[in-house]
Specification:
alpha+beta; 13 strands; globular
């Protein structure tokens, strides 16, 4: 009997130790690296969206970039926080005509994933864009971190694709590398788009953010007394990593980031004029001959499968915002 009791006590102690280890954040992360599990639950995603909306309204009402950083990260955080810093410099007392954002009719696109980071997408109606859908990507790098919005795309309802789902209603996250079986791997999309803007080609379908943008640049490159040059760069920072969901046609909806600089140089004897107060708020240096505008762009693209008859990528949405400026 003493042998059985000793064995029972040992089992109890072992169970207690294992239970204690399971509660440690590090151990949860390790198990998360192995197990393919839903990124979150619908109930948690709904709470995240509610918290985002409430905090976003307060940050925009008071022009508080630091508060915004508690709910946004990556490319969306970069553009919104730069905008808030500029607006705070111009209107330090906040926005008296602020109108609260309302996000309704939400559905949550939640993939099964192993390891970190994890993400999910909130597809919602917005009081700021009647008749359109807001697709907000929320991400986090570990169980101890808060969910933060990293991408936003605003699409017409008809432009939101049908997503591939498993038997339990979970969507499929596409890998960033070539194993995604797409015409362009998500990790290559930023470079491909930057190359297209510089050199043209047939990697992207015609549209406002592709062929029309190249044509606009061609027309405005020179004007009386001024010359404009562009530099388009892929996003290499891990903070700006692409995110993609598989669509029913075998392709993917991919959110990705690019960097853009526009340098305007005036003729000798003239001085560049920076009249926009929000640009002046972000301006460094003294404009004597030129001003370089630094912008970041977030895009949502429909990427066809690798074996598609038409392999061109279609840009569905593009948001480009100023994040800095330099006078020289």
């Amino acid at each position: 009997m003493r042998t059985k009791a000793r064995g029972l006590r040992g089992a109890v102690v072992l169970a207690a130790v294992l239970a204690g280890l399971a509660g440690l954040p590090g151990c949860v992360t390790v198990h998360g690296e192995r197990a393919v599990v839903p990124a979150t639950t619908e109930a948690e995603a709904a709470k995240v969206l509610d918290h985002f909306t409430e905090t976003n309204n307060e940050a925009n009402r008071t022009h508080d970039a630091e508060l915004n950083s508690t709910i946004e990260t990556g490319p969306l955080g970069a553009v919104d926080q730069a905008g808030l810093r500029a607006r705070h410099a111009v209107h330090p007392d906040g926005s008296p005509d602020h109108r609260d954002l309302e996000l309704t009719d939400a559905r949550f696109l939640i993939p099964r994933q192993a390891g970190w980071p994890k993400f999910f997408v909130a597809d919602t109606a917005s009081s700021q864009s009647p008749g359109k859908r807001w697709l907000l990507v929320f991400t986090r790098n570990g169980v101890a971190e808060a969910w933060k919005a990293s991408y936003l795309s605003v699409l017409a309802e008809s432009a939101v694709p049908e997503f591939a789902e498993d038997g339990e209603g979970h969507v499929e996250a596409v890998p960033a590398d070539g194993s995604a079986r797409l015409a362009v791997a998500p990790e290559d999309l930023s470079r491909a788009y930057a190359d297209y803007l510089r050199e043209g080609g047939d990697a992207f379908a015609d549209g406002p953010a592709t062929s029309a943008l190249r044509e606009e640049r061609r027309r405005t490159a020179t004007s009386p007394g001024a010359r404009t040059q562009w530099a388009d760069l892929p996003a290499r920072d891990a903070r700006f990593a692409p995110v993609g969901l598989r669509t029913e046609d075998g392709g993917a909806l991919v959110f990705f980031t690019t960097h853009h600089q526009m340098r305007q140089t005036v003729a000798e004897g003239y001085t560049p004029q920076v009249k926009d107060p929000y640009v002046r708020a972000l301006l460094e240096g003294t404009p004597r001959q030129s001003v370089t505008y630094v912008r970041l762009a977030v895009q949502a693209a429909a990427v066809p499968p690798a074996d598609a008859a038409d392999p061109r990528v279609t840009l569905l949405y593009r948001l480009q915002r100023l994040t800095g400026a330099k006078g020289e």
